[in-house]
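Support reply, case 0932

Customer input (verbatim):
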Amino acid sequence: MEAAEKEVVAYDCRFLCTIFVPKGGEGMDGAAQSMIVLTPAELWAGILAICGGISCIAGAIVWIYKGIKAMRSPNQKQDKRLAELEARVARHDELLANDKRHFEILEEGNRVNQRCMLALLSHDIDGNEVEGLKTAKDELQKFLINR
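Our regenerated output:
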């Protein structure tokens, strides 16, 4: 009887996990299965191995993500900088177009003033350039009204 008790005690220490594994090509009817018995230390070692594997895979994924992010960051910074520069260039184009219109108006005003001065000089010199003065006055009036 003592031998049977020792055997039971031995199985009690290894009771924590029992796994049934089917053999070869036979079915799952229970007769063709073998039993794997794990001690608590073996079970914890297995769990820790699985957790360690998961941690390694997660660490690798993080490193890959950081690498991809580091490779993309210059492009993102460059794209942002280019967008800002394009906005500045567009604003400068607007300002230059506005200045061009302003200069064209000033040039037209100078032409009208020069025609008026030429008509005045001709009238002072000849004394009979009245039609030229009337034409110059009409041009100056049109320019000032349309401006």
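We compared this against your earlier run and they match. Two observations from our side: DSSP finds three helices and two strands in the chain. The first helix runs from residue 2 to 13. Please reopen the case if you see a mismatch on your end.
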